[in-house]
Amino acid sequence: MTGKEVLFKALRNEVTPRPAWVPFVGVHGGQIIGMKASEYLRSADAIVKGLSEAVARYKPDGIPMLFDLQLEAEAMGCSLAWAVETPPSVKTHPLEGGGSLAHLPPFDLAAGRLPIAFEVTRRMKESVGDRVGIYGLVCGPFTLAMHLMGNDLFMQMYDHPDYVKAVVSYSASIACKMAQAYIDAGADVIAVVDPMTSQISSEHFVEFVAPYVNQIFDVVRERKRFSSLFVCGDASRNLAEMSKTSCDNLSIDENIPLELLRDYSRSSGKSFGGNLKLTSVLLFGDEDDSRLDAIRCIDVAGSAGFILAPGCDLPYAVSPKNLEAVAEMAHDSYKREISKRTIIAKQLSSTSCDLPDDYAALPHVVIDVITLDSASCAPCQYMMDSVHRAVATLDKPVVVKEHRIATREGIAAMQKLGVKNLPTICIDGKVVFVSIIPDLRTLVARIQEVIKAKA
Amino acid sequence: MPDYDVLKTAMKSGKVADVRKLVEAALAEGAPAQEILNSGLLEAMGEVGQRFKKNEVFVPEVLVAARAMKAGTELLKPHLISAGVQALATAVMGTVKGDLHDIGKNLVIMMLEGAGFAVIDAGVDVAPEKFVALAKEHNAKIIGMSALLTTTMPSMKGAVEAIRASGLPAKIIIGGAPVTQTYCDAIGADGYSPDAASAAELAKRLIA
Question: CA-nearest residue of chain B to A91?
């Protein structure tokens, strides 16, 4: 079975022999061929070279062609600020202050860098399209409306909702044209990338986003291709509504617990993808951290309808070795099992942890909270919140540290403190609350006892 | 005594005209400007901040509430000045060099203003020397820096170094999507906040 076939099975929400793997190589492609993002994203030759290198090294089942959400905005007259290691940012917004849509230039598939995107798609389809799924990425209509209107958009949702809907609807018509053009050039999957939707309520998602993204998904379905909705950022509250849209696949990043996405996707019959940690692991971690994080995703996701992916554009400077390590975990279940055992054993024996040698010698109280990861584990998050709330009521300095067992440091701290269950609160090195989140009064009282004993 | 619950409800739902009307009525009734500010507008903004922190309201809701607060405070300003009321302290806020994103920074400004700070908005793409110059000029007690990108986050380190080298006593707070407490500790900033409402609480703690 080719990688592309594995990907297609996953997109059809079927059981796959291994997880499908789609590294979101955008500006990172520039790094692997030694080019600045600002040069890379403006050259079809460079992008084809970067993606070809990524295909050879990361062995993906699918890969996006051009990850730059500013492409459409640029073609519509927004000026861009270029950077060395990130995609460009939109500097000017033609509809800022409420201009008429009629004043925008007509959308032209030959404008700006759009021809580069389609050329890259054609060339990649020709070179690797028989074995690797080709993703065409379009800027989501809400994010494109934001590019056109600037931050005004948020206020206008209250003041002139019909105007905002007109701009989002117009942006969706652009996305439909982009999807058609990508499909004409050879794309197998159209991903609608709409990160700004993570900033609004689910009611607003229903009103300002869902009907418009569905128009794009319908176009993709008519062309018998797969569709995906990518949302970067914490859009947990919108998952229920996202799963009611007509896309085939939902893709999220580390800000949303993968368990939550899995459950929503399963109940709505969609495939799903995510949520390798982009910064803490892929960017700042090493190969073993990357392996462990890939294993975490694969274990949570199960064997049906899952695409292992970062959920958002890979940072420029991610070490290629980390992505090769993830690829190895996606492709080889035996290596996955071995890694699970050996890495954890190695971590326990060799890692130092961020705990004081002598709590009593410190002038302040230290609260160590051992968590799975408060960003992705709800009880851990509630426990962290309750500790922060308790500390905010105190007039003495108290240092709060979270030790995530997704990191080596966290595992070492857990062992040193003798913690057996997660999450756990330790006060000045002693296990105090295990698994149960204490009420505010109890927690404050326990901390005050320790403060008093120290005084 | 004016019904501050009505004023707070109007402000929290972003109703500018209602807020203006209610503030004017409260002033006409003889309520002190500071009381209207504290018991009405600031309290309402504090509640909005808490709901934002708990993921119960989102960016659009905070923006409309902040705009309504501004409409109310503009009416109160002449009365506050004549009564000699002063801001808690001055804060300089900006997005760091190389970064053009300002939603997060603007939300923090709103929360700081809602907490009683006078805020100087340094804008986006702010060089370290500009933070220093503005903090000196306005005698700021807080300097706040925001970054949305992993690639611009390192600019914070340079700004912290420049502020420390200038000898300014201001406390430095940082935040933004990729920023963490660990990073804050590593670059020697005085505080990190994961969200806008906590940033205002942090600033208050640091100047206490």
Answer: B100
Contact partners, residue A248, CB within 8 Å, separation at least 6: A11, A12, A13, A217, A226, A227, A228, A270, A271
Distances (CA, A) of B24 to A287, A367, B15, B72, B185: 63, 48, 14, 9, 46
> In B, which residues are within 8 Å of A81 by CB distance?
100
ipTM: 0.78
Q: Which residues pair with A287 in a beta bridge?
A: none
> Among B82, B109, B124, which residue terminates a domain?
B82
Among B100, B177, B178, the residue with its CB nearest the CB of A81 is: B100
The answer for B 43-62 residues in CB contact with A (under 8 A) is: 55, 57-61
Residues A361-380 have pLDDT tens digits of: 888 899 999 988 766 677 78
pLDDT confidence band for A454 (50 / 70 / 90): confident
Superfamily classification of domain A359-454: Glutaredoxin (3.40.30.10)
Q: Is domain A3-343 given the CATH code 3.20.20.210 in the classification? A: yes
Q: How far is A444 from chain B (nearest CA, A)?
A: 18
